[in-house]
């Protein structure tokens, strides 16, 4: 939990999380405070990674400070500020409970703080920041390696370059790129496996899982994420064949020449040229249904609008699945608490990818 008027981006889960001061990485405000209570499962201990601690210097960090305390043992770490920084980027505690206290008085400079944490069950923590985990040598080319990404890296400051099919520039924010690639869910974090391979001349921009990557130029090395292992077969990411399409309704358009054109469900296939599927104008709770012919493992979805004479696209949607076409189960994602709302398209031209974490096993998708 967190409390106070100086809290920035915060996502805390029992196994990992990310927290930052208000306005990070901009200058943190005057006269603010935030207190975060971190609680890991019993029998585990917390590992805290200092992604960035940039508080205006003062004697004994009296004006702005970061202080960590272990209520179980009475141990204190800090206070920290710019002239009194942590001695190591990773703090290994012997406690499952840690209190993080940040406060500021009047000051002029400082980005504030960015911290992430995991438990002793995930010792290979990757900090929510640029570069590799401090102290780890760069992995050799094409060598496969694994790191743990804490929850909450999606909304940290920093750019990602590339997309899942191209790989990612090696200066990308690694864990943020893992969310973009669809190998972990931001609300949970998780272990990721990747390799470092030869780069490419140009990275195209792509929107996936609520994140837009940047178009970029030459990179000598690139990061390639693997959803299963280093020997992942390309067939694992094959596009599933749709046997039949169905929809709640479709639009029968009559153009200026009086000719009828049907925006039927079958035109929803991503490879279709010309106009797409569109529900009847004014229809509420419209749905599109895909029949995969047999039960399949579905790992994600790609959507695109229709630019054929009309600038049509879907901005957000829910997903349901069924094994028999009669009983439907809403997709709730990794949290499992409420129906997941997927972020769709912002125009009719680009494609948007969303991963299903965990995947669905179903014959019918709505």
Tell me what you see in this structure:
By secondary structure, this protein is mainly beta. It folds into three domains: 2-119, Jelly Rolls (Sandwich); 125-231, Ferric Hydroxamate Uptake Protein, Chain A, domain 1 (Beta Complex), CATH 2.170.130.20; 244-365, Sandwich (Jelly Rolls). The protein has one helix and 26 strands. The chain has one helix at residues 174-181; strands at 2-3, 7-12, 16-21, 33-39, 46-54, 64-70, 75-80, 90-92, 97-104, 112-119, 144-149, 162-163, 167-169, 190-198, 207-208, 211-212, 221-226, 244-247, 251-254, 260-263, 288-303, 316-317, 320-322, 329-330, 342-343, 352-365. The strands form six sheets. Strands 15, 16, 18, 21, 23, 24 and 26 form a seven-stranded mixed sheet that branches. Strands 1-4-9-6-7 form a five-stranded antiparallel sheet, with no helix packed on it. It has a five-stranded antiparallel sheet with strand order 2-3-10-5-8, with no helix packed on it. A hairpin with a 4-residue loop joins strand 6 (64-70) and strand 7 (75-80). The longest helix is centred in the middle third of the chain and has 8 residues, at 174-181. It is elongated, with a radius of gyration of 24 Å. It starts with a strand and ends with a strand. Mean pLDDT is 88; it is low at 129-137 and 229-235.
